[in-house]
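Section 3.1: Structural characterization of target chains.
Under the original work plan, the team committed to producing a structural model for every single-chain target entering the pipeline before any wet-lab resources were allocated. The record below documents one such target. The sequence was received from the expression subgroup and is listed exactly as submitted; it comprises 234 residues.
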Amino acid sequence: MHLSIIIPTYNEVSTIATVITHLQHCLLGKQYEIIISDGGSTDETVAIANTLGVKTVVSKIKGRAGQMNCGVKNASGTIYYFVHADSLPVASFYEDITSAVSGGYDCGSFRTKFDNAMWLLKFNAFFTRFNYLFFRGGDQSIFITRELWQQVGHYKESMLIMEDYDFLARIWQQGKFKLIPKATLVSARKYEENSWLTVQLANLKIVKMYKKGASQQEMLVKYKELLSYRKNAF
């Protein structure tokens, strides 16, 4: 299996070296490529990635959707694996994805484990063991075969928020989805900068707006209103 790992970045100088070196350590002797698809970072994100010997491209479209599409356009693998810059896949992810694809699955993701021991986050993570779309997210890391990608189509570049949910819903419907019973280590920085309840209420509000057909700009403005979040995250 030739795995193309695509990481969308924008000013991720504090995390990018950690995720790249983690992936490289896990992939010794494997057939893979790591593609950093950057949204025009003004810090040293791209320079660090280049130093670590991975492929870097700059997307014409800033935003995870456009950047992940750009990564795929520059990918040569048979499986695409989307990893957020502040998430660390389980060490056995390559073998786990290989096993899932060999078993007839053409898409899937992992559970969640947070890098903070807060019991409320353990509560959140517990529910990601259940294979329902509501409990899935892009930070858990998503894999998809090249064939299914060509059928489903790309991430919707007009989406500034909820792009992962939209993509997951489409591959869930058209593919054979595998929830791998291991957890991606996900950053808790959003919860650390806000309260657990604030984040939960903000997420619930945005999901409700999405289902009622709110515009991307309306949802983005509301999300920024509700949360104190990392500068340059959008």
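Strands lie at 3-9, 32-38, 55-58, 79-82, 87-88, 107-114, 142-145, 177-186.
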